[in-house]
Amino acid sequence: MYKGFDKYQSVSYHSSAMKRIICLLVPLVFCLFPFEFSFVFAEANHHSYVWPIEKTKELSSMFADHRDFRFHSGIDIPTQKRTGYKVFACQSGYVYRLFTSWRGYGKAVYLKLDDGRFAVYGHLSGFSKKLSKFVTRRQLKTRRYRTDFLLKEKEIRVKRGELIGYSGESGWGGPHLHFELRDSSGCPINPLTSGFSVKDKVPPIMKYLVIRPLGIEARVNSSSEPALLPLFFDDHENIYRLEETPMAEGEIGLELSVHDKMNNSRFNFGIYRLELYLDDSLVFASRYDQFSFENTHKIELDRDFELWQKQGKKFYKLYLEEGNDLLIYDPPGGKINAKALKPGPHQVEIKAFDAFGNFSSLASSLIFDQRPLILSCSLTEENNKQKIKVRFDDPDDLVQEIIVEESSFNHISWEEVRRERIGESRGEHTVILREKLDKPVLFRMKMKDSFGAFSEQKFLVANADQLKRANKEDSLDLDFEYSFKDNFFIFDLKFSQILREAPRLSLKSGGFNFDPLFYEQLDERSYCVVFPFFLKNQREMSFLIDGVSLYGDKVTMKETIPIAIITKSFGGMSISSDGKAKIEFEPEMIYKDINVTIHAEKKKFEPKHKLAGKVYSFEPSTVPFNGRTRISLSYPEEGCDPYKLGLYELTREKSWRFVDQKLDTLNRLVEGEVRHLSVFALLEDTLPPKVSKVSISPGKRIKERKPRITTVVKDDLSDIGSDEDILVEIDGEWMIPEYDPEKKILSARPIVPLTLGKHLLTIQVKDRAGNETKIEREFFVIGK
């Protein structure tokens, strides 16, 4: 039985009598409604909580929603863009911890509840009077805004429903209350399955299904790339479906784009539970009831990090990724090996639940089938007729037909010339084309089996000797990209000309020669080639190509490629070719072996601030790390101030984000730690922060003796790093500086009333690069 709550349950828990009724009804309901309905039942519970805030009872974020490298550890309760709502202790207990910061949770209260759990309240605008005294006393003692301290059990007791603070927007985000429940060991638990409820009768909404090839030979719809498939809702069946029936071979994983909705809410929410069925058998399920802070970064294995980085799309994985040891799966697994299943259509069903029993389903067929293989093909002439001989094999089906198309070389446009039935699983087939050709022609062949799967394409060149060069200086050029996956190098090649025949390819490294495991011709000029590669300590490899151009020229190409295989067990290091960019990995910092490349960007960057050196691209950028790893960039000997430098990342939005500024002057390096690879550069910040719109103008006469001082503080690059970098004083007396880094508003108020007469306001602000701005204002308190 799933943990959860009935849609109509209030915050207060069932009485003892109601619990007995539920215990009697649950078996009856299970008999009437089989398990496949996957209804989420309310769990009788011993805890009794009050809603943590007055007036508002809706949500804007869900437990376990995606945040960069972490699960959202609670629920967010919106406050209609207002602050100051009363916030209550959800149960009796004592104040365990008080925290204030400009970032993160802002002003926060941690309660240790009498039931052994913890409750956390974040982004407050202020504390209750008895809590505020403790915080203010600590801030004045340390002369810092940031505080973080634990209290003794009997120091501040609170009763269920007692006022502990007021909602706000301190820390990150607009006005809302962040609320958490944690178990006795401090692990976050889902409040919506642990004692709290909101009105929700709306089922989740499914948008897309991704079918991702996982093995090196896996394919979806004949492609090694993930298939992004839109879903539509079938009103008659009340179910989501695919617009087409996908075909898959090898090992695949399914991923779902889905979000939940709630009554009268504009927000999108995460999902509580997901289930994947293959032919009516449950093969994978995830449930977001609890997690540990120690492993929260592994959310990027639970979701599709690659699609998030490349396209900003959020997908739940319905399979267990290597390195994912989160305890939220039952059963784990989910990877589907099509080769181990009977060829043909199989039924897939995915169910998505919210915490209140509402659910949606996706039902679809997947065809598991290995593609036909064209082992060889050749063009011959007999009795003045052109013949194409094809050797073929289909591992699990019959080849139904062969399709032959032709095109001229001047303009590639394919026209079908023959389509013949075969009806065999393997063998040789001859296609008789027509009378002898008297002009150059390019042929394309492909085969189709009974399930509709197509083989890879094969190409043949006829009468190439009759071709004339359009330009005597025509040469054969090559563009290629390569990647490393599961001990294989994958090369994508694109030639400037059509080749007369498939090129001969090899890799050399460390005294070993590597032949292709397989290669596939994608179009007239493009190939995908896969090499096995098990060497770990090599710094480079040679890629050799022998071929014949369209005009009969024998061509040999050799490319020397730097490599840096980083292993899970031992870590490793990668350095750019100019030696000025480096990344180092400790053991267990990655989940599987990767090849890390670093190259200087060729395109010009013109940031507002000065670049110190080149912009470097670190790849692969779509792999999350199991922690933070260190990168370093070298700065030039002259032309920059090292103490003004910072390491910055170029974000998806094409803005520069500060990473770190650890300075190594001995080796002329700036270092920082990152969770994934990206584009990085050193930027020099020489401009001081701007302080404007100060509420106290020079010579101003005011009546208030405890005036609230406000100003706008902006820095356009390195930004303000710490609460210690802002100083607000009146007549040399320190005031508690409250700064909103998103709104850029700084405020402070005197602790004790000012005397009548002249006073001096001082505001001093420093950014991470040490640039400083100081302003002073004389003003007068005249009283009422």
How do the strands and helices of this protein lay out in sequence?
Blueprint: H1 16-32, E1 66-67, E2 70-71, E3 75-78, E4 86-88, E5 93-100, E6 107-113, E7 118-127, H2 129-142, E8 147-150, E9 157-158, E10 163-167, E11 176-182, E12 188-189, E13 205-213, E14 219-220, E15 227-234, E16 239-242, E17 247-249, E18 251-259, E19 273-278, E20 281-287, H3 299-302, H4 305-311, E21 316-317, E22 336-337, E23 344-353, E24 359-368, E25 373-382, E26 385-393, E27 399-407, E28 415-424, E29 426-435, E30 441-449, E31 458-462, E32 478-485, E33 488-495, E34 504-509, E35 512-514, E36 518-521, E37 526-532, E38 540-548, E39 554-562, E40 565-566, E41 572-575, E42 581-585, E43 594-595, E44 597-600, E45 610-611, E46 616-619, E47 629-634, E48 645-650, E49 656-660, E50 662-664, E51 669-674, E52 679-684, E53 690-692, E54 700-702, E55 709-714, E56 726-730, E57 733-734, E58 738-740, E59 745-748, E60 757-766, E61 772-781
Parallel strand pairs: 17-24, 54-61
Antiparallel strand pairs: 1-2, 3-11, 4-10, 5-6, 5-8, 5-9, 6-7, 7-10, 7-11, 11-12, 13-15, 13-18, 14-17, 15-16, 18-21, 18-22, 19-20, 19-23, 23-24, 25-26, 26-29, 27-28, 27-30, 30-31, 32-33, 33-37, 34-35, 34-38, 36-37, 38-39, 40-43, 41-42, 42-47, 44-46, 45-52, 46-52, 47-51, 48-49, 48-52, 50-51, ...
